[in-house]
Write the structure tokens for this entry.
Amino acid sequence: NSKTPYAPEFIGGLAIGLFVLMCHGLFPQISTLSAILGAVMPLVPGLAMTNAIREIIMGDVLSGLVRAITALLVVSSLVAGVWIAFELVRFV
């Protein structure tokens, strides 16, 4: 277990971004947007967000908000990883 809470998601997004951009360099016909979306989709916390909305509707507002913020932080760390990969490739 990591001491940094969202580091695995960030590293996953970074790895996906770098891998897709490397494949795009080798095979230019690959759509980077489609490839990144397809690779990141299994990591997106859709069920956690759905449960958060359900809890808010059921009246457990505090618990629902905490779950929603956690899911949004996971998505944000994934996006940050992919963004850093794009910036690294653009820089080099």
Notes: The chain is about 80% helix and 0% strand. Residues 48 and 70 are 9 Å apart (CA to CA).
